[in-house]
């Protein structure tokens, strides 16, 4: 009898310990150097008493968005918002029928619309992103993002976020990190959906922005979006914006292109342990493969600097079990 | 025997309830309408189930700094930093001996130094606030704030913060609010000490700023402060910066001058319960009395708008038991 009770106790302890075994916080990541580098860094900065321990208030992780948290091919998704808005706004702008680059968009010829380069793109952006209040713009983006579909995949754009990166952000937050987005995308464009999709609230979203003016419309104060690009959150602008807005140097930084190089340099030059990683698009079967010669997310100079800086290359094909949420 | 036990129980309950009586979270505030308005608002926005309940993530309170959280007479304290730095830097700038407004500062004639108005002030600001890295600037401010004394009171500047407002910020944080500073002062000037003095960490500090450039000095990335005022966080700039940086409309706003009017209008125009208050300097005995005609913290238009808007006037003399911490 005593033996049977002892055996049952052993079994009980066995099952309890099974039940208590910590679940893998990064199930969509293959085991290997990349995953290990991430979890090692989190362990050593969060273990009380460790020489590399970092208090919670300094656990700041910054993530680029396009190409780092969601896809960016064949064009940055915000560009599709621009084109869709031009179509929606066309009845109020009969002149667009004969005016480039708008005429090309209305004919469905995006290649010709983009032939005018940055000047044409900014003209289309200003036509669709300004001349309304901040509340009106957010409502417009919210409506678009909840229904518009990607032309190649047919998915909602928010279904083209990277499942492994969602897990990574959750894992970091569970370990006391504050997760920021630091993206070249428009800050108000992103804030319309980042909290729902990524769990990143408006105060933790940093992006490019257009000029905004405080105006009293009768007794109602309004913030009006003006047709002028005020700040481009790319390259050297990223550490500058991190400094202006966060005011602390990040502990971890994640990007995918040369536009993130300065942010990674600024992050990893801090004292004590720092972590910097680049998502490398290597997976033509499940997503895309591109780097040095791409017109979106060009990764050239930063690719060569991964090894000398001891940064981590996240190889989409090798490191991720899956790309998108199901 | 039974009676004695009952009596003891009654006594016990009495003492336990004494011990559990909630301490006044605002002991430096006189009881009255102002204090009541603040605690009523916090109660109704934090009581679960109330129609006026606001979730924690939306409990954002914004505070002006100069004149709202610390004194600002006879000059904004950051101006004293400028004058002290001019004296410290003078040996490296022999030309300042004969060049206004610097020569006047070096002669100790601040009135003449300020006679040149805004142009002279900006010239002195750029000479002392730019041409160094962000790290160097913060170190300089940290050193200054830990030792410099106010010319009239002989106190450390950080001893001239308002004790009732320290209690108010703690009270709000204890009730799930995130407290931001939204000030015309320089953002990096404030960040050097706001966490230690107010408990407000760098990401919750919004201020004016000068242009900053990302520069690689050899292999070391540096953020260099350039001699150009990039953003003045005053008047309409305050709601604009709140929108760009926080991305949510505040629930509560506290200011003391016409420079805060737009921030208070923007805050109180939000849906649901909102709270806006103005610190009115009415106490020449303990601090200062000034409003419509003051050259610092001018309170004129906003003073007339308190009543029609249902805002709260914090009367320093009437509402505060004490002004500074002991
Ligand atoms: Ca990117
Ligand atoms: Ca003020």
UniProtKB/TrEMBL annotation, chains A, B:
One of its GO terms (molecular function) is magnesium ion binding. Keywords: Amino-acid biosynthesis, Hydrolase, Magnesium, Metal-binding, Serine biosynthesis, Signal. Pathway: Amino-acid biosynthesis; L-serine biosynthesis; L-serine from 3-phospho-D-glycerate: step 3/3. The keyword Metal-binding applies. It holds the Pfam family HAD. Its EC number is 3.1.3.3. One of its GO terms (cellular component) is cytoplasm. Residues 1-22 form the signal peptide. PANTHER family: PHOSPHOSERINE PHOSPHATASE (PTHR43344). This is phosphoserine phosphatase. It comes from Simiduia agarivorans (strain DSM 21679 / JCM 13881 / BCRC 17597 / SA1).
């Amino acid at each position: 009898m005593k033996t049977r009770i002892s055996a049952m106790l052993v079994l009980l302890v066995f099952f309890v310990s099974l039940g208590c075994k910590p679940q893998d916080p990064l199930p969509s990541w293959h085991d290997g150097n990349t995953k290990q580098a991430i979890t090692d860094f989190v362990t050593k900065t969060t273990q009380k008493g460790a020489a590399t321990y970092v208090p919670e208030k300094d656990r700041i992780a910054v993530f680029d968005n396009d190409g780092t948290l969601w896809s960016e091919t064949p064009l940055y998704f915000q560009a599709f918002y621009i084109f869709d808005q031009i179509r929606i706004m066309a009845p109020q702008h009969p002149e667009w029928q004969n005016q480039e680059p708008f005429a090309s968009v209305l004919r469905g010829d995006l290649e010709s619309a983009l032939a005018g380069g940055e000047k044409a793109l900014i003209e289309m952006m200003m036509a669709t992103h300004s001349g309304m209040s901040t509340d009106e713009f957010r409502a417009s983006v919210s409506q678009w993002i909840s229904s518009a579909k990607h032309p190649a995949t047919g998915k909602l754009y928010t279904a083209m976020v990277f499942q492994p990166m969602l897990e990574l952000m959750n894992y970091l937050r569970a370990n006391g990190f504050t997760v920021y987005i630091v993206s070249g995308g428009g800050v108000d464009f992103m804030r319309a959906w980042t909290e729902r999709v990524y769990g990143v609230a408006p105060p933790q979203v940093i992006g490019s922005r257009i000029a905004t003016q405080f105006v009293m419309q009768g007794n109602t104060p309004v913030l009006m979006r003006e047709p002028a690009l005020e700040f481009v959150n790319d390259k050297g602008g990223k550490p500058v914006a991190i400094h202006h807005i966060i005011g602390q140097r990040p502990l971890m930084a994640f990007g995918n292109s040369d536009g993130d190089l300065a942010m990674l340099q600024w992050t990893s030059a801090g004292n004590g342990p720092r972590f910097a990683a680049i998502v490398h698009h290597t997976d033509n079967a499940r997503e895309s493969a591109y780097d040095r010669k791409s017109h979106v997310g060009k990764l050239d100079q930063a690719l060569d600097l991964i090894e000398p800086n001891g940064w981590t290359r996240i190889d989409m094909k090798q490191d991720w079990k899956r790309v998108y949420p199901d």
